[in-house]
What we know:
elongated, 2 domains, 3-stranded parallel sheet, 9% strand, GH18 domain-containing protein, transmembrane helix
Amino acid sequence: MRRKIANLFFSIFFLGSYQRRAVGGTLGVLLGILPIGHIAWIIGLILCLIFRLNILAVYVGIITSLLFPLIVVAAHWLGLESLFSSPDSIVLDILLGLFFLSLCYLVFRWVYKDVHKRELLNDEKMFVFHDLGRRWMFLKRTILILFVLSLVTLTVFGISLYDHPVVTPLIQASPPDPSIQPINQKINSSNSREPSFPVFVSQEKQKDFTTYAFYVPWDSKGWFDLNSLGRIKDIDVLIPEWYSLNSDLSIDIKREENVDQLAKKHRVQIFPRINNVVDGNWDESVVHQMLISPQKRTDLIKQLHQDVKKHRYAGINIYFDKLRPKDKRLLTKFMKELVLVFHRDGLKVIQSVPPR
């Protein structure tokens, strides 16, 4: 019995082949990224006893799993979530997990692999703990990995110094309730009626203001703030920049379906914005061509009205900048025509005025 226990204890600490050590390390990474907390260490020990894996390799893998959040943050920073239709889909997380496990397996296999073995000469003898150069190779690879991880950590830290910090939005304090009056008399046991205390009102009921948020497709951080950081829950009205006028007065649509789905899921009103940005610059001529022609004004209003109704938006946001001074009256006329069509179907119109 003692021999069996000794063999079992020796097997889980024995180095074994580099393939089994790599598998053990990858198993530890899998246990580490699963949402099971500290139980991963216990499950890792049990699996080592069952499959005779190297317990040290498994525990190193669990520690290595602490790097997985860096992979997730990098994916959000690159905007990979926009490639999937559902904003709350776990497909991206699964793919990132498989990628991280594959990468860890290759790294563990490379670290543990016994290469560059030094052969003994005829006059050399095999000593106890003689490893034929394996320890030095293992040490060099470990130092190289630690150097790469340190470099990545310093890079992330350097980027964070120049990145825009994400802070919790300030919530305005609600005005005092005038119905709450101070108690003018002392409270004692002789009072026939117990004093009434103000009823707690939740923060959502106290909110007496509307929160607007703007979303631009070219900022990859916008989707990360809305979805991953949960900023969509603090928004009442979302104004995404979906439309822009082309030089031929057609509408260039840059809609992101995942943003629309996320906003509708949280019951956030959507007011898509249309601007006059052509090739990255404000183009006053394209707005002028539209304003001077009654037919072109009607066509543009019709296109906007159809698209807003089709996607069940709450209304439209108009933002034309760098206009010619003589086009201001025509712009007012265009807005009246637009409001008449949209209000007929219960749709709202918001006009953004550039600062002067």
